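Issue 218. Parser rejects a valid record. Input:
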Amino acid sequence: MKISVIGTGYVGLVTGTCLAETGNEVICVDIDEAKVEQMKSGIVPIYEPHLDVLFERNIKANRLKFSTSLNEGLDHGEIIFLALPTPEDDDGSADLSYVLGVAKEIGKHIKEYKVIVDKSTVPVGTSDKVKATISSETNVEFDVVSNPEFLREGFAVDDFLKPERIVIGSSSERATKLMNKLYKPFVRSGNPILIMDERSAELTKYAANSFLAAKITFMNEIANFCEKVGADVDKVRIGMGTDSRIGKRFLFPGIGYGGSCFPKDVKALRKSGKEHNHDFEILSSVIKVNSNQKTILIPKITSYFNNDLKGKTFAIWGLAFKPETDDIREAPALYMIDKLLELGAKLNVFDPEAMPNVKKKYGDQLNYSSNMYDTVNGVDALIICTEWSIFRTPNFSELKKLMLEPVIFDGRNLYDIKDIENEGFNYTSIGRKSV
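Output the parser choked on:
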């Protein structure tokens, strides 16, 4: 099949590359000329595990191409994916200007029947707006489908190639047949393609992300309470997770969630509720608790250093909002950095992938280290913000030699309490006793 993907962010680039991998002819369109030239040269502009291999293979096979021309993409594809940004607006709603702007251009230039697919995460009713926008510019027949993505950064390629489910919101039999044909190779193991109306499909994505955000936030509340009553959140987590109704995933406490999806989607769903006279009280609580959780370690750090961080130097391990990505959007580490700088601390930072993005934001306010051990040389304490695998089993003897004091503030609960105590560290984590 001939496919066009408008927008080459995380969702668009993964979508286009993975669809090419199953033999489709794909054109990815982006207005950023430098980015398009970079991709034409075989350079992946984002860090996503395993994407580079598929990217290179499909470019060589001439199944994956790139263009800055929306018209070229529109002429090429029988199915047109809109994978455009929907950034958070000032009032918490999703900004649809990019989606509707492209929809208007599609209406002006469409020549024959196309299926227009909303792949971006969009509020309920967006498919109607896209349809109305295109219809205002043309009499050519087309259909609009809602096909939300469920891609986890760091696992996006696997999630696309082996989806747990595919959600298609469509009221058109013609469009549904084309979408089923496109996705059939991805569900050979029997995972479902769920067909529903457009509005239900749009809400499914927001509901899923908001539920997971609430689950994370609830566990963080439990962790904070554990510290007050002397309970161990790890034991509580395991006790809860063995209940099949609850499950083990998303029960790990820490310094809050971040990224491009959860923060934006929770706020957008709450805003959408207000527009329809519905108050999502639980989502308001999730937003408030998560905001506080991102700097939950700050009072513990200041207390340890007698409320004076001026002249103190801290190492920070982990800057991305989660492991296996270079994405720093809404990353808890950034909130920690801002607060520590405000309190007069000096910071050495390290992340396996996110350093260039952080450097663009902070410039020379931070000291950037080439490896995790250089970061801790001569520091007063180590702060862990992201649970990259390389941080899980460090050489503790080497850390003690390099650090001024053996002090760790762990925002991701990477280490066993007994083990870290035996290593001779002062250790503070989330929802567990301090050593």
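Fixed in the parser; the record now loads. The mean pLDDT is 97.
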